């Protein structure tokens, strides 16, 4: 428990320092809060990628859990800023820039969800690539080779499976023959 709290605290400190440093790049009187938007969108992507990568590559226990809490909850949580996003939206509404506030609100939410989704896709791709490479399934370029559900290399050839005299592509507990073997026996 103490390790988890320490990881979140340390990560949150680092993330907050990064956000504060980046926020200083934007003038306080800027009409469009581009730095907060950039911070929140990149944070959405990074968090989606991190969490999906960790979920794809192993269980959330031990050191992995501490890293997830430190990086995800701590660093990315400190880096992103919902409170500044709401304050900037409110400031524009009370300053009679309602249209600007609504556009900022919509872009932040919609594009934030898109960024999170892209991060999840990237994390899944990276995670599967790591798992496949760890299993030793690489092609001659050193890249992870695609695998089938049995974990063996699968470069697109689907076995033909005969079940009750009907030939189907796919895997099953039946007599399987590759496409070339089926052609040889005809």
In percent, how much strand structure appears in the residues? 5-15%
List how many beta strands DSSP finds.
3
Question: Tell me, what's the shape?
Answer: globular
Radius of gyration: 25 Å
- Percent of residues in helical segments? 55-70%
Mean pLDDT: 82
In short:
It comes from Bifidobacterium tibiigranuli. The protein has helices at 2-23, 34-57, 62-79, 82-94, 98-134, 179-184; strands spanning 160-163, 166-169, 175-177.
Structure description:
It is found in: Cell membrane. Residues 166-186 are annotated as: Disordered. The chain has 186 residues and is mainly α. It has 2 domains: 2-134; 156-186, no CATH class. The chain has helices at 2-23, 34-57, 62-79, 82-94, 98-134, 179-184, and strands spanning 160-163, 166-169, 175-177. It has a 3-stranded antiparallel sheet with strand order 2-1-3. Strand 1 (160-163) and strand 2 (166-169) form a beta hairpin. Helix 1 packs parallel to helix 3.
Keywords summarizing the entry:
6 helices; 3 strands; 3-stranded antiparallel beta sheet; 186 residues; 65% helix; mainly alpha
How is the secondary structure organized here?
Elements: H1 2-23, H2 34-57, H3 62-79, H4 82-94, H5 98-134, E1 160-163, E2 166-169, E3 175-177, H6 179-184
Antiparallel strand pairs: 1-2, 1-3
Helix pairs in contact: 1-3, 2-3, 2-5, 4-5
